[in-house]
Structure formats: C-alpha cells, structure tokens
Amino acid sequence: MNSKYSSYQTGTGNTNSTTSSGDDGYERDTQLKWKPNATFRGVLDAVHAGDNQWGQSIGVKFTDGKLVDGVLMERLDRDTNEPDGTIKLFAWENMPVILDESLSADDAPDVFTEEIVGKTYRYQLVGARVEGDEGAGIESDPAEPIDFGDFIVWEDGGKKPSSTAKVLAQMLTTPGRDVIVDKNDINNWLDVQNVELREDLIGREVDVFKVVKQGDKHKFHSPVVIDVKTGKQVMIGNGGGSSSAAEGGQQSASRSPAPEESPASATPESDTSGAPSSEIPEPVSDFVEFCRDFGLTDESQILENLNDMAEEADNSLTPEMVEEVGTDAIVEAIVN
Q1: Which residue, of 54, 83, 281, 317, has the greatest Cβ tally within 10 A?
Q2: Which residue stretches belong to region Disordered (predicted)?
Q3: Does residue 21 carry a pLDDT above 50?
C-alpha cells in the first residue's frame, strides 16, 4: 500500500468523517465505484442531489478522469458479457498480486471476479497504475496517469448517510456544513434544493481517495481530496463557498472540522463486525428481524436465506447492501 494512504489514516491531516449508488436521472453518465487505498483524478464539474425510494444521495460529476493509483475495471453484464456502464477502482491490495517493490502495472489481471453474497461479478481490465512512493523507493508505472473519460460518483448510506457521503457533501457544496439537514435520516439528510458545487472548486483538478479509519466500535471510510495544482487538501468550508486548506496537503489542527458525531456512531462502510441492526441498511435490518422472529439460529440456513433474498431482482435487499455490512456482522446480529 502506498504510504500516502497511511499518512491520512491518523492525525490532523484528515477530515473527521466509496457505498456508491446511482440515481435514475443520471444513468447516461459512467458510474465509478471505488475502494479505499486507490486514487483517481478528475476535474470537478458539478454536484447533484439524488432522491429515490432508498433515500437521498450526493453525486459528484468529474470530467477528464485519470487513474492515478490502483486497478480500474469495467463491470460486465452477466447475460451479455458486455460492459454495463459501471467501472470500479480497486486497490492493489484487492488484486491477486504480490505487494512488493517489483509490483508493476503489468501485474494487473485482464479479468477479475468478485463474489458478493453468492453472486459473482465479472470485470475486465481498463487500466492499471502503480503510483510512485519516494519513501519506499518505488517509481510510478506507467509514468503518467491513465485517461479514462468523464464519470460520476454517487454516495449515500444505509439508514443514515455514510461518512463519505456527509463529508463530500459538506466539503464540495456551497452551503458547507449547512447542507446537512438530518445526519440520522437517509431520506432527509440533505438540503437538496441547495446542492451546488462551490464556485471556487469549479474546474479544479483534484486527486481523490479514501482511507479506512478505526472508530470506537467499527471501521469507517474517510475521503481525501487534494488539489493537484497546489498540492493542498480541500477542506470543509464554513458555507458560502469558502475554502480551507493547509500547506503541503495537511490540515492544520485549528481548522479541523469538528466531527458531527463520534466515529462509533457514524454509518459503517466497511468492516462492521458487531454493528447493531440500527446502523445497517433498512432491508438488511428487516432481514435480521425476520430471522429473529422465526427463531433462525443456524448459520448455514441464515446464509442460504440471505443469498436467496439478495438474488431476487424485485427484492429491496441487494448484494451491495450485504457487502457493505458483511455476512459475519449480519449473522452475529441475528444469533446474539
């Protein structure tokens, strides 16, 4: 893992906060899903608010996308085997490779499969790049980032908006902190009428990645946005489009945004072992209650029912929701 990610996992150089979810109004845009510890670059173009049966979401539109670090794949339709309009940025640690000084872009697999709750998703390679790490003596391969065009990133959450969604909304929109209406309600967390990109950020080229932080009870994702031209970290402003960044891409302690809630109460986005059902997406919570009501305690039977429900096209429970929470956490919430 590139050392820049670990430098943002602790300390004052981070915001205190990529499950992405597309909105029907923007299906024409290629949607990017992203894993922690991988970096993309793009020119900030617009910010959109999404609102559907699953709740509100924040969409960030980029032009001139570039792969900076990681492996970029396009997802293939299970029936036609053609690209389905979704691309996904994986970290090198997600790939079947040896993570040492000899790692190169050529090590990325041409085809990659990902299994989520019994479903297998197939991807084909778009491009791969190892970002240079001076501290580790690693040079970039290839030397320059790889172009991949325009795209949009959607962020939402479960019952509550995710940490990534809340931080990006506050960081990139004109209202700043005031864009958050109710941090505990996925259906009413965002001031959708005032979601617009900060004027000082329009047309700025930025590097974007997220790191995994450890909260009191579970891990959560924290997004980082770096201005490519200045090398400074884009910070949450105080509203009115104001910007805040410290020299060298590190945020000063005096300008650190005060956390709205402790990490322990933030919506989990990755390892959520032991998370209570109130912190997970409602369809997953409903499944937990269903199993409890019927007295299901056998793990194999629980997983079989979970897989069956997630695979039903007309069911509100989706494989992405199960991946977000984790099967171990779901089983534990049922039997404990």
Answers
A1: 281
A2: 1-29, 236-283
A3: no
